[in-house]
């Protein structure tokens, strides 16, 4: 299976190229933030955010981030900073006509300010540029706050994936956003 997956990665990498992301300052809820593409040196900050957001758990390891950032297929991994401190990030990769959000996290003290929504809208733009028809993600069944944010952004529930999260066997709700043609 892994050999087929790696072959798929190498084939796609010949047809698609990641477009560079233009780092910039943005205003969200009357506050200024800096957003840019994630680089390998940022992984330590991402792991720290995961520990805080997921109560000490690490849904993604250093190795998982390394593999994603170096993947051949189109992907987008962004972080957002306030006063040079990384406070959140989002990641997605494209498979066919779907942009799959692999992870999104914002430090607890910054949640509720529109940062997560902003990051997801950046993924939406990336998906449109790459001619995607959908954006998909999984969210813990227990994470009602995240589900509410995703629904506000237009995501709808799709299926339940039993025992999706390996550390506690919690189910995941798959959600999908169908992109409108413009």
UniProtKB/TrEMBL annotation:
Keyword Transferase: yes
One Pfam assignment: Acetyltransf_1
Keyword terms, alphabetized: Acyltransferase, Transferase
InterPro entries: AcTrfase_RimI/Ard1, Acyl_CoA_acyltransferase, GNAT_dom
Keyword Cytoplasm included in the entry's annotation: no
Domain of life, source organism: Bacteria
Domain N-acetyltransferase positions: 33-180
GO molecular function terms noted in the UniProt entry: N-acetyltransferase activity
Name the UniProt record assigns to this protein: Ribosomal-protein-alanine N-acetyltransferase
